[in-house]
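Workshop exercise sheet. Pairs work together: one partner reads the sequence aloud, the other fills in the structure field after running the prediction. Swap roles for the next sheet.
Pair: D.N. / O.F.
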Amino acid sequence: MRTVPLILLIIVTLGTASAQDQRARLDALRAEGYAALYNLDYEGARSRFQKMIELAPDHPAGAQCLASSIWVQQLNEAWELKATLYSTGAYTDAKPKVNRKQADEFRKWTRQAKQLSEARLRKDPRDVEALYFLGAAEGLESAFAGGVERKFMAAFRAGRDSVDHHREVLKLAPDFHDAELTIGLMDYVIGSLPLPTKMLVATMGVRGSKKRGLQALERVAVEGKWARDVAHVLLIDLYKREKRWNDAIKTARLLSEKYPRNYLFKLQIADALTSQIVALKKAKTPVAAEEKELQDIFASLSRDKTLDSATRDLVQHRWTIARQQLEPLGRNP
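Structure field:
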């Protein structure tokens, strides 16, 4: 009679060990994929994310990661975005040409991530991980609609759904800081709207605060797990909007050191440095160290033989713009 409980115990133990092994392999593939993605190796990233789906076809992580890789690539490869380096110029009224094949692929993966998450939630409405991935897929839909397709109402609706689901995550698991990413970004965006628009969205029950939004994103950048790098990327742009040049430089430098093959992070440093030098010169503050770092960045990128001709042209374009911004100010006495 004692053998039956013993056999059951062995089965349960083996099942738990197998689940833990699968989780470890999923996490390893996810980490490798994101490292490749932020080093601009899109194919390498997708290869690892595809393996996640093969390893755990019922888990939404692989589909969500694949959708994320397409979104990041679309943004990085949009010439206007490259030329403005995630500045406000990337969000003009002009609608850029969208790669329809990639857009369809993006929707396929966000749809799959949502369906897999919803299937788990039907079994357990308090499944924190499923709630998170559902909100993360909706957050990607919002970012793609607003940042790539310029469909701002669609972006708002998907963003609101994402925030609702991630608020549920935080009620169940207050330390799940990755869920604060979409909440913080929505807070900042709504808090930045002109007063009439802000009053309009308030009638829909949506309110925001730039300060609260920045604090949430900074918390994710420090205490988050998978969303840390995304939070840092977002913070670079938001710091520049707030004219917090030093914070923008520090954040871009951190990402550049972590992902040395991503030239965009180096250009982000240069972009923020240029604005910082302009502000310091107007205040009659010495800028020799900042000017040297700026020159070193462009010199290093100009010598980088791994960059293709289009990227080298972009580097020269940004260097020309930086000089044009600085030359009218002359040299500090």
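Discussion prompt: Confidence is low (pLDDT under 50) at residues 83-93. What would you look at next?
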